[in-house]
UniProtKB/TrEMBL annotation, chain A:
Name of the protein described by the UniProt record: Nitrogen fixation protein NifU
A GO molecular function held by the record: iron-sulfur cluster binding
Pfam family of the protein (one): NifU_N
Coiled-coil intervals, chain numbering: none
PANTHER family listed in its UniProt record: IRON-SULFUR CLUSTER ASSEMBLY ENZYME NIFU HOMOLOG (PTHR10093)
The NIF system FeS cluster assembly NifU N-terminal domain, residue ranges: 1-121
InterPro entries, sorted: NIF_FeS_clus_asmbl_NifU_N
An annotated GO BP: iron-sulfur cluster assembly
CDD domains: IscU_like (cd06664)
Amino acid sequence: MYSRKTIEEFTNPKNVGVIEDADGVGEVGSTVDGDVITMYVKVNDNVLTDVKFKTFGCVVAISTSTMVTQLAKGKTIDQALAISNEDVQEALGGLPEGKGKCSGFALDALRKAIEDFRNKQH
Amino acid sequence: MDSMKRIYMDHSATTAVDPLVMDAMLPYFTERFGNASSLHSFGQEAAEALSDSRSMVAESIGAREEEIIFTSGGTESDNIALQGVLSREAGKRQHIITSVIEHPAVLNTCSFLESAGHEVTYVPVNSEGIVDLGEVERAVRDNTVLISIMHANNEIGTIQPVKEIAGIAKENDLYLHTDAVQSVGKIPVDVNGLGVDMLSISSHKIHGPKGIGALYVREGITLDPVIFGGGHERGLRPGTENIPGIVGLAKAVSLARERLGADSAHMGKLRDSLISNVFGTISDVRLNGHPKQRLPNNANFSFKHVEGESLLMMLDMAGIAVSTGSACSSRSLHSSHVLTSIGLEPDYIHGSVRVSLGRENTMDEVDHLTGVLQETVAKLRQISSPGQC
């Protein structure tokens, strides 16, 4: 059902945690509906120097969260915003049918965190 | 993974076929393969096995041989019972009473019947998953024909007051069907003691083969068939009889009855120990269903701030098979209709696991599960921590 890579990421997620002095925080979902993902970003000179997450959710929610942090970390903001749902799925070795849409959730959280950062700049 | 010992604790989903059941079935695949409708000796061997099996199944639930109809399983039994009554009563009474926590085999049949113009009342359950008798009584109308309430729930293991419901059915001249797929082999099931008119049984939940089940239909009740063909099974369930399956079902039911006392004591002891261990070692946990009025092999837990599928997958990676009431698709977690119906709090509703024990599970396995659960819940809470959100 799940790829070996997805299970590997789910079992040993990287970048789990909270950035206390985050420059941007993005949260999607609610515990009522399920799947809550919070992304924290630290930005230095337009580069995402640190990205962390906290996720309540299924295998896809957790594995895509950790994958998004790994794909975004070290990227410029524009490069991070260009990460697509397909990129995340490809990095995970594909997702089971019907689970594809879930992978966009972690990206939405990242984009909200970047938006929060940008809002704070103005 | 290959060398890891695997522990199966999902017996409400299905069970391994008992070797004695296998032994009973095997000759009917190769040596005694006749069609029970054939007049020659091969056919007569099969017909004899059919009759003996019917008698064994009947005896195990206090019924008479002629009151047992063999089906392909619990789902088909439920369909025949519900559709058979409604079809027979077409143009007369057309209202059914059922509960909100029935198995999809009943709920989806009710949905279909509603789409065909029949009426259905879904009575609620309390926070412990028990049907309110007053609600059943109040749901009765002039055109009610059937009550269908499960004997024991497949997810949270609650045992329904079927005998008391039978009293309501009798007072109002209604048929009563119960889905006993989860209760047969776990607690005593006697059709006369329960006072039911129809009762569904499945073989693979009690160490029999898959694809075979039975429907008890009290003598004097006539149902319309759901499928059409020859005159097998009193014309109610036509099709060449699955003799190996039927022999397997009969053996499984018979063994379950023989072992009921020992099995239920063993599983009940493991279940109580598991519940006590879990509550002793893990915080923020709920036991779903009634604390006492539940199947001896069922413990359904919900862990706050933990998602069921993630928990199930991590337990599976540790070699332990359980199931969950949580499903995820398209950005939304769906919890089971049963957990929703008992009004479980939002923080708990997505984090359920059902542990359903079997006769071969041991106390060591229960202790191992407790330890793994403790570690896994802690790990997932560390990842999720919604309090931070």
